[in-house]
Each structure stands twice: as C-alpha cells, then as structure tokens.
Amino acid sequence: MDDTATGLGDGPLAPGWTPPEIDTTKAHPARIYDCLLGGKDHFDVDRQAAEVVLKALPSAREMVQENRAFLGRAVRHLAEAGITQFLDIGTGIPGPGNTGDVARSVRPDARVVYVDYDPVVAVHSRALLAGADPALTAIVVADVREPASVLDNPAVRGVLDFDRPIAVLMVALLHFIKPEEDAPGIVAAIGEALPPGSAVVISHGTDGGDPETSAEARKGWDNATSQFTVRDRESITALFDGLELVPPGVVNVPLWRPDGAAREDWAGIWFDGGVGFKR
C-alpha cells in the first residue's frame, strides 16, 4: 500500500513534518477537549478556554469523560455486532481508549480511519499511533462540513472498503456545526455513501435544561476555531432520520447501555447520544 493510501504522504502527515505556523491565539475544540480530559496535547490558549468552561460548569470534566466512555461502549457494541471498519470523524487527539484500541480489543483486524480538520491534531495523532499497522489505520486531514472531502479521500478509500459495513463516529462533533451549516444534511450525505449494515454513532451537547449556565460555559469556545451550538433531544434524534436506532435510542450518554448500573446523577451530564443502523 502506498503512502497516499495510508494517509502519510507528502502533506502534513509526512514523517518529520511540523506545522509552518501554529496560531496560538485561537483555541481548537479538539485541544480544549484534550485539556478537559486531563491530557497534555494542548496549548495555553486551549487551557484558558477550558478554564472558562470549568468556571461556569465545573462538571464539564465529568461530561467529557462520560462522553469518551460512551464512545467506547458504542464501538465495542458495534465490533461485537460484526463491524470491522470504523471511520472516526472529528476524532480529536486519540488517547487511551480511542476507537482503534476498543475495536481491536474485539476485532484485532479492525480497520480504522481517524479524521480531523486540524493538521496540528493530525500530527499529534500520527505520533500517538506511530506503531499502528498502516494497512489497517489512516489519519486524514478533512472537514466534515464538506462530506466529500472525507468520503472521497484516497487515504479513507485505501483503508476502508465501502462495499462492506462501516461504522461512522461523529462523537462530540456536530455541536461544532452551526445551524446554517446543515448538520442533518451532513449526516444524510455520509449515510447515503454507506452500504447496508453500516452504523452511525452520534453524541451531542445539550443545555442540560439550564440555558444560562450553558451559555456561560460555551463562551469557552468564543475564541476557538469552531463555536459550540447546543441542540435539544428532538433535534439530535432527527440526525438519525432514515436509520434504525439501537435501543435505548437517543439518551443521556451514561444511560446508553452502561456497564453495570448507570450513575444516579446522569441528568447532570449534558450530552445525548445514540447509535443507528442503516438497513
């Protein structure tokens, strides 16, 4: 397989490449998320943004941890259901428990493509996944706002077989799509490109029934490359139109097939999520 197919060609993922310019005046959602998760792959501007979020919403760390746990349970469920191909869009920085780790704990031959629109995130991803088999793994710089840039990317097509089921993950991603950027249309375009038996995983931020606190917390993204848009349960469920939702449907993420008893204070986790199959 050539370098184009692995996603490690002459562009921003080539060995030894570093970004010619890093704009440290703007935070990035993936790096803010990394900071909230307790990671180390972020800059001062991202930490400052995370501090704004945490000042308004101290439970934000628990929220992103529960969201990451939801990703793990969803990937494990799909791998156990027989899916061996995963397209993780808006992957952020793939720390422990990332899509590939979980999928390959069930399906050692799982094929995984990680997509993010920030080249700096892609560089971190390449370093963290340096030991991955290039025949089974790719890291791609593309923007979900242009679905074709993901679906038609040679690196994506080089690793994933679009004649076989694929699980597409858009976890903590679509709340960075503004209303005028048509999140339902983006999901529909991706779904149309998938063969039957494929699945879509979505989690999305809500206002938790406290719009004032939510608005204060979302100021953390005011100076970021993408801003945070909350949607209600009905709107998030509508993103799965045309797909068959896996029980229990779209719920607060701690309630989606928890390992053991769900936490009693689940209502304080302002993320809804679900999994849908294309039949």
TrEMBL record:
InterPro entries: SAM-dependent_MTases_sf, SAM_dep_MeTrfase_SAV2177_type. Signal peptide: none annotated. GO terms for molecular function: methyltransferase activity. It comes from the Bacteria. The keyword Ribosomal protein does not apply. It is an enzyme of class 2 (transferase). Residues 1-23 are annotated as: Disordered. Keywords: Methyltransferase, Transferase. GO terms for biological process: methylation. Its EC number is 2.1.1.-. Pfam families: Methyltransf_19. This is SAM-dependent methyltransferase. It comes from Catenulispora pinistramenti. The lineage of its organism: Bacteria, Bacillati, Actinomycetota, Actinomycetes, Catenulisporales.
